[in-house]
Amino acid sequence: MADLDGDAADAPVREVRHPAARSDGAEAVADARAVISRLLRRASSTCRRLVAGLAALLWATCLSGSAASGATGPAHGARAPAHAAPPDSSLLVFAASSLTDAFTEIGKAFEGRHPGLRVQLHFAGTQQLALELDRGARPDVFATADPRWMDELKALERVWLGSEDFAATRLVVIVPSLNRARIRGLADLGRPGVKVALGREQTAIGHYSRVLVRNLARSSPSGDSLGRRLLANAASQEADVKAVEARVARGQADAGIVYRSELTPALLRRVRPVEIPDSLNVRAIYSISVVRDTPRPGLALDMVKWMRTSEAQKIMRRHGFMPAPGLAR
Predict the structure, then answer these.
(1) Which of 5, 43, 123, 192 could form a disulfide with 51 if both were Cys (CB 3.0 to 4.6 A apart)?
(2) Phi, psi (degrees; rounded to nearest 5) at 199
(3) What was the pLDDT predicted at 33?
(4) Mean pLDDT across the chain, nearest whole number?
């Protein structure tokens, strides 16, 4: 996997698994997995995309049958949770660090839909989570701030092919509350002596920050020069967006580039935002998928699909996120 070994955390992720009785629906899902794996292994490069589509359809069909075989319907007109979880069951979710506040609330809301379920959340930079997956960690759900990593994990068959875009955000510059460097716009980030905190290139926030620099370069000859000076002023390369925020909030950098959705009241007590023109700004897309070989595919898929519902979208908006492309505002 490209760039995976760059910034690994040494601490392993502990997974909590609970044995469950194997139902007919679970057997159908297991059979579907086997068929999908055989299809993907045998597919040539010219027909792999067609096979992937057929596999995703087979997967969804089997999961629907699995859910139907184990569920009892609510009384007519009653609003009921999606389905009750097995006693003491858990769902382990790997999510990008920029989703920390939103997914803490998301997890509680999803537990409310599935009585008896405990949602366990593990947050880190998207690239670190991808590395942990590649090294054998087995969460049930993976939520990323950078679809490139989702595509990489699909290619390695670590996650299922059907992912969903569920949220978006844009970039903003933050400066310490005292703003001693007098940063008022992007042009100031290229001044001599200004210390800028950026995410490392392989991180999601680092990738989007460099897309911003490319946008600057395309905007004008002076923008190209500004982009190069901005990168030259990078005083630190951080592991995720939270680390960029911390660096600026402590006054160890004159400015940093983060997501607008990070501008919580707590952070705004320590930093000030400096807006980026819409013509140059970058839209970060968040996507979510079921992790391959999860023993709880029905619950995992339900969470993936639920993230695009109005209930989940209201939670994401409360935490400063925009709908993903194709979702109603």
Answers:
(1) 43
(2) -75, 150
(3) 47
(4) 81
Beta-carbon contacts of 74 under 8 Å, excluding residues fewer than 6 positions away, are: 80
- Judged on CB neighbours under 10 Å (0-12, 13-18, 19+), 179 is middle
Count of domains forming the chain: 2
pLDDT at 120: 98
pLDDT, residue 223, reads 78
Instruction: Say whether pLDDT at 305 is over 50.
Output: yes
Judgement on whether residues 95 and 40 belong to the same structural domain of the protein: yes
17-35 b/e with 16+ CB inside 10 Å = b?
Answer: eeeeeeeebbebbbebbee
Task: Identify the CA nearest to 312 among candidates 150, 93, 160.
Answer: 93
**Which CATH number is 121's domain given?**
3.40.190.10
- The burial of 178, by beta-carbon neighbours within 10 Å (0-12 exposed, 13-18 middle, 19 or more buried), is given as exposed
Whether residues 185 and 112 share a domain: the answer is no
b/e sequence 105-132, b meaning 16+ C-beta within 10 Å: ebbeebbebbeebebebebbbbbbbbbb
What's the pTM?
0.75
Pair 29, 145 in one domain: yes
* pLDDT exceeds 50 at position 90: yes
Range of the domain at 216: 169-283
Domain identity same for 156 and 291: yes
To the nearest 10 degrees (0 to 180), the angle between helices 204-219 and 241-249 is 80
288 beta partners: 143, 164
Q: Is residue 73 pLDDT above 50, yes or no?
A: no
How much is the pLDDT for 161? 82
Q: What is the pLDDT of residue 24?
A: 40
Same domain for 107 and 179, yes or no, is: no
Stretch (H or E) spanning 196: strand 196-199
Residue 221 inside a domain? The answer is yes
Q: H or E segment at 288?
A: strand 283-290
Up-side HSE of residue 117: CA atoms within 13 Å toward CB? 26
Query: What Cα–Cα distance (Å) separates residue 233 from each residue in 96, 190, 282?
Result: 26, 7, 20
